[in-house]
Amino acid sequence: MKKAYLASTFVLISAPSLADAPADPGEIRNLPLSGFVDQLSLEQLGNLVVTDTKLAQAADTVTQRIVVLRNEDIERQPAHSGNLAELMRPTSGQFVNVLSRNDANWGSYAGLGPKYNSYLLDGLPIDSFVDAMSLDPSAIERVEVHKGPASVLYSNYLTMDFVGNETPLAGTTNFVLKSRVDTPLTRVAAGAGSWGTVFGKAYAQGTQGNLGYIVSANLEHSDYTQYGTRNSWLQTTQAPAYQKNRFFGNFSYAFDRPDHTVTVFYQRTLHQGTMGRPNRGFDHTYDTLNFAYSNTFSDDWNIQFKYGERRYDRRFANDNYPTDLNLSNHEFTRQTIRPADLTLSHRHWGESLLTAGVDGQWVDYQTDVQDPVGAVTPSNRAQARSTGYFVQEKLVWDAWVLRGGVRHDTIHHDYDLLGGITPATRSAAWSKNLWSFGTRYNADPGLAFYGNVGTSFMAPAAKQIGGTVAVPTASGELPNPGLKPETGVGRDVGVNWRASQALTLDLRGFLNTINDAIVTNIVSAAPSQVRSENAGKARAMGYEVDLRYAASSETSVFGNLTRTHTRVTDPTNADHDGTAIPFAPDTLANAGVLASLPGDMSVATYYHWVGRYYDSTSRSARLGFGQYGVVNVRVQKPLYRDARAAVHLTVDLNNLTDRHHAMPFDFRDPGFNGFAGVDVRY
C-alpha cells in the first residue's frame, strides 16, 4: 500500500505549512536517489520541497525563501472569488487583487506587476491570469510560493492574452497536484450563499493495484451582483449571472517501483454567463492537461519528462452602451499553449545536486470579431515558440549551500495578422543568456541567512503589439507595434529565525530593476481601453517581515508587513518620469488568528490591509486606489463523525465591514457576502 500511494510522491513533494521547518538533514543526507521514497517516513517526505530543483529536497538546502501552503491551509481559507491567487493573500510580498468572480487577478509581487511571478502546475508553466480562474482548488495538494529571483530551471510563459508573457523575476508559485492516494475517499458537498449562489461537488479517490486515481465534478451557479462602478462600462441592467462547471481527473501509475511513475492530469472548465446587460454575455472553455514521467534509473540519477496542453477558448458579446443596449459584436480569443520539459538530475557529494535539461513551448493565438449579422473579421493570427537550455549546480557543504545556474533562451514569433492587417514585420526573434546565483548559511538549526540574484528576459506578446480593438469605440487593448523587449535583475537577502518551537520570524529585503519595462496603461475608461508601452527603467525595492506564534495547540497567530518603494525612470517622457509602477501598493499587511473553540469548532480570521497604488505610469491620467482593509472569516464545525463517515459544516463571511473599495478598470468590490456548505466524507 505504501508503494502504491507514494507512486508519484518523489516528483510531487512539498514542504511544511507556512514555515521553513525542514526534515532532519541528518536523516536524509547521503541517501541515494534510488529507493529514496521507501527510506523516508511520510512525515519526512512531507517536510521536503520540490520547486528549487524539481526533486524532493530538504528546505534548509534551498537558497530562496519558500512559503508552503498545505492542504489544511487551503481548506481553512475563505473562498471569495474562487481564484487560486487568493490562496496567497495572507502571505507577505503579494498583492492579490481579483477583480471579480468572472475576472483575473491584477495584483503585484515584490513591487512588480502581475506578470513578474510565474505560475506552475507540478512544474509546468500555466497562465497566472486565466488558469488561476479556471483550475479547481480541490485538485491542489499544496502550494509552494518560491520568492525572489527564481531558478533558471523554469521558462517564461508565452501567453498572448491579458498582459502577455509572464516571467519568474520576482518568484514563481508551484501548485502541486493531489497525485498521492493513501486511502479511498469519497466527498459530496453542497452549499449556498449570497447573490443566489449555489454549489455542489462530488469527489472520489482510490487505488487499483499500482494505479492511483482522483476524479471530481464541481458545479457553481450564481445570480451574482454588480461588480463595477456605477455608470461605467460595467453598469448592469440585470443580475450578471454565471455558471461555472469544472471536471478533472488525475491518474498516477507506478511501474516496477515507487520512483518510476507516470501521471496524467486533465481538467475542463466551462464558464458561461452574462455581465449584466442583454448583449454582454460570455462563454469560455478551458482545457488543462499535464503529463509527467519520472524514473530514478540508478542510485543517483533521475530523469523527468513533462508535457502539457493549455487550451483557452474565450467568447465575449459587446453592446453599444451607453448609446443603447443593442449588440455591437462578438469577440473570440482562441489560444493553445504546449509546454514541454526534459530534465536530468544527478545527486553527488551527499545532498549536492546537478540539474540539466531542455524545455520548450509552442503557441497558437488568434482573435476574431463577429458583427451583429454574423460576418467574421479576423483580427490577430500569431504563433510563437521558445527553446531553453539550462544547467544548475547546487553544492551542499556542511552549513553552506551554494547554488549557480545558467540558461539560454530563444524565442521566435510569427505574425500573420495583427490588428486586422498583415503587418510589415512578419516575424521577430530574440535570444538571451540568463543566470541565477544564491547562497544560504545555516548558522544553527533555527537560524539561517540567504541571498540571491538572477536575471530575466521578456519579449512583447502579439496582443501587445497588435492589440484587440477592431473599432475605435470597442473595449480592449490598443496596438503598439513599436514595443521593445525588456530585461530585468532581481536581488534579495534575508534571514529565517525559529526562535522556539512556537515563534518564527522571517525578514527579507528585495531589489528588482527592469530596463525597457513593458507596462500596461489605461488609455480610456469608457470604452475601457489599455495600451502596453515601454516605460524606460523601473525599480522596486522593499522589505517583508513575517511573524508566526503558536500560543498553544489550539491557537496560533500570524502577521506580516510589506513595504515597497517603486519608481519608473523615463527622462524622455515627463508625464511618466518618476512615477510608481502600476498595481504595486506601497504597503501591504496581513494578520490572522487560527483558533479551535469548544464543540470542535475552528475559526480562521484574516485581516488584509492594502496601501496606495496606481493603475498607470502616466502622472496626468492615472487613478489612485487602495487605503482599505478587509476582514474574512471561515468557521468550520463537524456535525457528525464516526469510524466510517464525517459531516462538516463550513461558513464563510467575506468583507465583514462591507467595504465597496474601488479597483482598476472600473471594478469594485461588491461588499459583504456569506456562504455556507456541508461536506460529507466517507
Give a nutshell description of this structure.
The chain has 682 residues and is mainly beta.
Question: Can you put this structure into words, describing what you see?
Answer:
This protein is mainly beta. The protein has one domain (2-681): Maltoporin, Chain A. It has a 22-stranded antiparallel β-barrel. The chain has a five-stranded mixed beta sheet with strand order 3-8-9-6-7. A three-stranded mixed beta sheet has the order 23-27-26.
List the SSEs and their pairings.
Elements: H1 2-5, H2 9-12, H3 25-28, H4 36-39, H5 42-46, E1 48-49, E2 57-58, E3 66-69, H6 71-75, E4 94-95, E5 108-109, E6 117-121, E7 124-126, H7 130-134, E8 140-147, E9 171-177, E10 185-193, E11 197-208, E12 211-222, E13 242-254, E14 260-274, E15 281-298, E16 301-319, E17 327-348, E18 352-370, E19 376-397, E20 400-417, E21 427-444, E22 447-458, H8 462-466, E23 476-478, E24 486-498, E25 503-515, E26 518-524, E27 529-534, E28 537-550, E29 555-569, E30 587-597, E31 601-610, E32 613-614, E33 624-625, E34 628-641, E35 646-654, E36 673-681
Parallel strand pairs: 6-9, 23-27
Antiparallel strand pairs: 1-2, 3-8, 4-5, 6-7, 8-9, 10-11, 10-36, 11-12, 12-13, 13-14, 14-15, 15-16, 16-17, 17-18, 18-19, 19-20, 20-21, 21-22, 22-24, 24-25, 25-28, 26-27, 28-29, 29-30, 30-31, 31-34, 32-33, 34-35, 35-36
